[in-house]
Amino acid sequence: MRPIIRLLLLLPFLPACRPDQVEHLSNTKELAVESANWEVKRIMPADLLRATRWAGDSLTRTAERELRRVLTQKLAEGGVTAALPYCRPETLPAPDSLAKVLQASLRRISGRPRNSANKAPISAAELNPADTTRRVARLSAEVFTYQRPLMLNDQLCLRCHGTIGQDVSAADYALIQKQYPQDQATGYQLGQAMGVWRVSLQRPGVAEFWTMKTRKVMKKRKPLF
Which residues form the Tll0287-like domain (predicted)? Predict the structure, then answer.
């Protein structure tokens, strides 16, 4: 039997392909975005420095936000006595968890610290409150650093770091001195720099943060009705 005749005989048995049977993909844009996210991209040195700034901002802001939350709660519960043990933002759960993700270490440095372990000379330029004073650097192939001023931006902080006898009661300061005999961290005013945040980050953590920050995200579609 000739091939053409054989084909004609089989045609009635082949299912018709109607338009309503064709399945169209409804998430082609989402698939395209996900595909782009999985593309291997080269991270340039400038990208890593940019990511260092992003990561440093995220980590220090998380520490400050968590400190305000905890101190507000503790001061309301038991005043300075209850709050003093928690005035170590780098050790609080949220910033500590983020630091592990970023492979980073977070420190506070001051020329007038409460804890003498945090004492270090700082120039006037480093205490400039302007955001442009953020300093990022690559110390080696694997280590990046970030620094910005540590500002007293909350009235809450004056309870322990303001003027003695005015913002800080004599009883509260006696308690502070008992725990920190070499305390120098009083006499500050709202809006003044108390020191600097210093962050050291490992390259894998910085690269991962750059990848997360630059991932494409699909905007949610607005409902038609």
Answer: 104-200
